[in-house]
Amino acid sequence: MTFKNDFLTALRAGKGYHALMELVRHHRVQGLSVDAAYQALHEIWLEHGFDNEVAEEGTLQDTLEAVMEKVWYGQPVL
Amino acid sequence: MEGDPGEGIYRVMIEDRDGMPRLGLTALKLGVRTGVDIVPDQKGMVYRPAFRPDEPNGLSCSPTIQDLPAFALPVEWGGSNPKTVVWRIEVSDLGAELAAQEDTPPQRKGRHISVGPSGPMLFDDYLRAVQATRSRWKKVTRS
C-alpha cells in the first residue's frame, strides 16, 4: 500500500496520534521523504474539506492536523 | 514578502470573537497537548526542556512566517487556510514561566521554535502560563 492509502485507512479506523506518527516513521524508514509524507497528508486534508472547517478536540480533523504539524516540522526524527 | 516583519516567534491560530487567539487544545488554537507537545511525568510535572529536536518541547512556533505549516498558513500569506491568522509574540512577552528556543530537526519543511516551561512546574500551570500570553500575541497581516 502507498503511504497515503495506509494513513487514510488508519485514520478512518480511529487510530490516534501516536499510532499515526508510528505509521509515518515506518514509511520514512522505508525511504519516504518528509516532503512526500507531508504532501500526502495535505492531500487528505484538502480531500476532506478541512480547509473550510475549524477542528474540535478529539475529532479526525484534530488528529490529522496534529500529525501534519509535527511532520511539517520534521517529526518523527529518524 | 511584502509586510513580513522578519524573524521572531510566530504561530498560526484561529482568531476568536474578541480579536485574540482562540484557546484550545488543537494545532490551530492556543494551548499545549499532553503527549503531543510535551510529556508530563507521573506526578503531572513538566520541566525546562533541553530543546532536543526529537523531543516534544512545548508549544510549536516558527522563527519566520515562511516556516509555518502550509495547511495552517492563511491564504494571504501564500498558504491554503482561509480561517487562520498569523500571530507574533515577543520573547519579552512570554513571561518568566516560559522559555523559547529553536529546536529544528535536520530534515524538515519548516524551522521550529518550542515555547516550553522555564523550570519545573505542574503541567496545568504550564498550560495556564501559555494561555496567559493570549493578549500579547499580535496579528501579522500583509495590508
Describe this entry's structure for a reader.
The complex is a heterodimer of chains A (78) and B (143). Chain A has helices at 3-12, 17-29, 34-47, 60-72. Chain A has 78 residues and is mostly helical. Chain A has one domain (3-72). In chain A, helix 1 crosses helix 3 (34-47) and helix 2 (17-29) crosses helix 4. The longest helix of chain A has 14 residues, at 34-47. Chain B has 143 residues and is mostly beta strands. Chain B has one domain (9-140). Chain B is 6% helix and 22% strand. Chain B contains one helix and eight strands; from the N terminus they run E-E-E-E-E-E-E-H-E. In chain B, the strands form three sheets. Chain B has a three-stranded antiparallel sheet with strand order 1-4-8, with no helix packed on it. A three-stranded antiparallel sheet of chain B has the order 3-6-5. In chain B, strands 2-7 form a two-stranded antiparallel ribbon. The mean pLDDT of chain B is 96. At the A-B interface, helix 3 and helix 4 of A face loops of B.
Describe what is shown at a glance.
The complex is a heterodimer of chains A (78) and B (143). In chain A, 64% of the residues lie in helices and 0% in strands. Chain A has helices at residues 3-12, 17-29, 34-47, 60-72.
